[in-house]
Amino acid sequence: MSGIVASLFLVAGLLVLVSALEPLAARVRLPLTVLMAFAGAVVGAIGFVGLNTPFVGLSLGGEGVESVIADTDVLLAVFLPPLLFQAGLTIDVRRMLDDIGPILLMAIVAVVICTGAVGLAISATGIMALLPALLVGAIISTTDPVAVIGLFRDVGAPKRLSILVEGESLLNDAAAIALMVILLEAFVTTAGVSLLAGIWLFALSFAGGALFGFLTALLCTWLIKPLRRMPLAEITLTLALPYLTYLVAERWIEVSGVVAVVVAALTMAARGRTAITPSSWTALRTVWDQIAYIAAALVFLFAASDIPGIIERADADLLLPIVVTVIAAFAARAITVWGLLPALTLLGWAERVSGEYKLVMWWGGLRGAVTLVLAAAVAGTPQLNPGTRIDVAILATCFVVFTLVVNGLSLRPVMRLAGLHRLSKENRVLRDRAIALTADAVAERLALTAEVHRLDESALREVLDRYQRRREVAQQSAEVGVLDPEQQVRVGLVTLAAREETLYLDHFVRGSISRSTAVAMIAKAGRLRDGARSRGLEGYRDASRDTGRFRFSLSLAMRLHRAFRWEGPLASKLADRFEQLTITRIVVSQLITFTRAKLVPLMGLPATIPLRETLEARLADIEAALESLRLQYPDYAELLAHRFLLRAGLRMEEREYAELAEEAAIPAEVHHQLEAELDRRWREVEERPNLDLGLDTEELVRRFPLFEALAEPDIREISRLLRPRLTVPGERIITRGERGDFMAFISSGAVEVSRDDHRYRLGRGDFFGEIAILTGRRRQAHVDAIAYSQLLILQGRDFRRFAKTHPEARQKIREAAGERLEATSGREA
Q1: How far, rounded to the nearest angstrom, does the alpha carbon of residue 389 sit from its chain's CA centroid?
Q2: pLDDT of residue 119
Q3: How far apart are CA 33 and CA 296, in angstroms?
Q4: Chain centre to alpha carbon of residue 65
Q5: Rounded CA gap, 751 and 754, in Å?
Q6: Tens digit of pLDDT for each residue in 309-359?
Q7: Confidence of residue 829 (pLDDT cuts 50, 70, 90)
Q8: Sign of the C-alpha dihedral, residues 35, 115, 163, 222?
Q9: Predicted confidence (pLDDT) at residue 9 exceeds the cutoff of 60
Q10: What value does the mean pLDDT take over residues 438-449?
């Protein structure tokens, strides 16, 4: 049998083995990677004891696949891109960006701590020099969060905690691999690399890779748009993205290909969802999950099969370095978990993590496929002397095996020790109440079903008795674990946040909102849930108050407009806000109904009163923010409502046609024709209408009472002097004490002028800021926008030029200024 055929047969056999291991892992409740490592070691042992055939020989030092995986560049290029790209696609990027500071700090600092601690510890044993010892530290600083995240999900850990762990793992993979490449280059380069040069090289490689990955993902989303509703072509393009990104970054641009792939994956996770059709995105995620699953499985089996060979090559001198590596790595992890995380919490950059969760995060620092790929890559680096590369690979592989066997097998007992295997008191009470409530509902429906279908009454009584006993047991248990009012409110808020997330997902599935809006609002629901879990009612309210706030992206868009007069980004962000406020108002209204229909029977009326009051207050805030936008852009509000209903109607049509086809009421060819027509209509409504900000200067000048008598040449002249500016509610336009270098005309909207206890409001047709220009004094009051307002800004130098050529307007401004000075006793705005 030829080598290629033998290798294909080998890989196919390993895939069969992996498919058998997964149900076994679920049955024995062990991480799949532990069983993969065990299976690989068994297969390797078979070949090691003399039964090696063309289908075994898996070891890195054997004959079977060494020609494929022994080359470092080939190994990294084949396995790393899919592993890292899939990990990036699965992360909630919006939630990750909320905590990007602590995630970056934990990822990069944790890598440095682990690399330094392990490198110094190993070099102290005298078995190898500092540089290769640091190489071992960099390789094993990558963490595999799969097991810990799965356990967090089982015990209902805060979503933010999972995001921190996932984000840290993904980015520390990138940082560790970039650092490993630099250390490897320094080791094989005779001239060496100085510390400062190494730091500069690391920063340049990291930043360059990040920029290149972002640009390649943007290019991919641009290329995908013409392929909408062509799922095979869409998915195929994304399959090429990580490999092309990695190879071009490494070979031609000479920046970190790993960082480029990670950033490309994160960018696709954030932006690709809006470029790719929902069905294609689901298929794409499935394909990439499968690819990463196969890649990780092959890596584990290939590497684990070398364990017998490692045992043979290892000698007694390596025993101490192996022990030292384990101790130093876990000490470094302890510094990160018990030192870095509390520091971030004190700074307000991260949510407080309990001691129980810290214990699981520390002990659950398993190493996985990425670490094994890096170890194998070092083992296949010909520039290293054989003794060094074997020692580095042995230390790294032994550490992976230790974490998989010792930590992987003991992780659940550690969780039981920490008390994380039990439901919290709040969840136990909720479970019991849900059982009791459901038992009543099911008994009622069963009785109706038996009556309709004329089923035997004795059989019905037996089943109803069973549900009655189940209800009584649950009711008694719920009464024993009565919660205090604060706990009840906390449970109710967490339930509401979970329900809110489900409702946003339902609206997306029905097609009534876009994917970008759904992703943003689901992330918002996650923040509400984490706030309720950590600080109860106060945390929930703090997380919900950002309804009226404006995120950095909107502030940046406004600055771009004011500096360069770019309306596109600002219009897009305001349109996003319009759509998000609209769907949030609908969902909060649904939550109020949900509270009345479901939570009152489940928790009792007194416990739900604070919930209903909180929702009603939140709804009022949303209505106020939405009304402010509606007043400014009534036509756009109507367009959005029209689009929302059209999308919902098309989704209803789609479901109705599918049901008719399933029931054979219409033939397949008719169904296909109806689907084609729906696709055409979907394309018409998928694009959101453009928001016209109405900031055309000449049009604003014509609408302003002070300028309405001007002739067209004068309007064009004043338009060249005035600059349009959009302000949002709550924005401070003028600050007391600053130099007055402009005045503003209100074309639409309203502002509030305040000094101490004196406040008054100005609206359309009014102007402000003129007194400081006329008198040369500093501002004596604050001016804040209280609605979306379109202003015309006139700089001081332009005011003087305008006053010379338009004496009538100048006189009106002076008269208004005099009246204000008299009314406010000399208090200027």
Answers
A1: 38
A2: 92
A3: 9
A4: 38
A5: 10
A6: 666 666 667 788 889 999 999 999 899 888 887 887 787 766 677 787 788
A7: very low
A8: negative
A9: yes
A10: 85
Sheet with 742-748: list strands edge to edge: 723-727, 789-795, 742-748, 767-768
Q: Are strands 767-768 and 742-748 parallel, antiparallel or unpaired?
A: antiparallel
Q: How far is CA 664 from CA 410, 608, 704, in A?
A: 55, 47, 64
Whether the CB-CB separation of 628 and 581 falls below 8 Å is answered with no
Task: Specify whether the CB–CB gap between 304 and 38 falls below 8 A.
Answer: yes
As a residue count, the chain comes to: 829
Mean pLDDT on 625-643: 81
β-partners of residue 789 are: 727
How far apart, in whole angstroms, are the C-alpha atoms of residue 136 and residue 167?
Answer: 23
The radius of gyration of the chain's CA atoms, rounded to the nearest angstrom, is 32
Structure-block tokens of residue 507: 């609206």
DSSP state at residue 643: H
Cβ neighbours around 585 below 10 Å, total: 17
pLDDT on residue 63:
41
Is residue 158 a contact partner of residue 530, using CB atoms and an 8 Å limit?
Answer: yes
Residues sharing a CB contact under 8 Å with residue 498, sequence separation 6 or more, in sequence order = 525, 529
Q: Specify the DSSP element, H or E, that contains 755.
A: strand 750-755
Residue 747 in 3-state DSSP? strand
Burial class from Cβ neighbours inside 10 Å (0-12, 13-18, 19+) for residue 286 reads exposed
Nearest to 303 by CA among 80, 140, 65, 86: 65
Residue 791 β-bridge partners: 725, 746
Q: What whole-number distance in Å separates Cα of residue 538 and Cα of residue 225? A: 43
Helix (H) or strand (E) holding 767: strand 767-768
What pLDDT score does 128 carry? 84
For residue 785, the SS3 value is: strand
Torsion of CA 633, 636, 642, 647, to 10 degrees: -130
CB-based burial, 152-174: b 16+ in 10 Å, e otherwise: beebebbbbbbbbbbbbbbbbbb
CB 305 within 8 A of CB 41: yes
Task: Give 363's contacts (C-beta < 8 A, 6+ positions apart).
Answer: 407, 410, 411, 414
**C-alpha–C-alpha distance, residues 51 and 792, integer Å:** 86
Cα–Cα dist 606/518, whole Å: 33
**Distance (Å, rounded) from C-alpha 483 to C-alpha 494?**
15
Tell me, what's the pLDDT at 77? 78
Averaged over 776-780, what is the pLDDT?
A: 83
> How far is it, in rounded angstroms, from Cα 82 to Cα 294?
10
Chain centroid, CA 704 distance in Å: 45
- Using an 8 Å Cβ cutoff, are 188 and 384 in contact? yes
Q: Is 160 in contact with 95 (CB distance < 8 Å)?
A: yes
Q: What digits encode the pLDDT tens for the residues 600-610?
A: 877 778 888 99
- Gap between the Cα atoms of 116 and 110, Å rounded: 10
Separation between Cα atoms, residue 302 and residue 200, nearest integer Å: 36
Helix (H, G, I), strand (E, B) or coil at 724: strand
Q: Please state the φ and ψ torsions of residue 747, each to the nearest 5 degrees.
A: -80, -35
The enclosing H or E element of 744 equals strand 742-748
Tokens 């993902």 sit at which residue? 217
Give CA–CA dist 772/14, Å, rounded: 80
CA distance 568 to 556: 12
Interatomic CA distance for residues 790 and 561, integer angstroms = 13
User: What are the φ/ψ torsions at residue 790 (nearest 5 degrees)?
Assistant: -105, 115
Asked whether residue 685 carries a pLDDT value surpassing 50, the answer given is yes
Inter-residue long-range contacts of 484-487, CB under 8 Å, 24+ positions, other chains counted: 485/606, 485/607, 486/536, 487/425, 487/426
Dist. CA 73–CA 65, nearest whole Å: 15
- Give yes or no for residue 577 having a pLDDT over 70: yes
Nearest to 425 by CA among 470, 471, 472, 480: 480
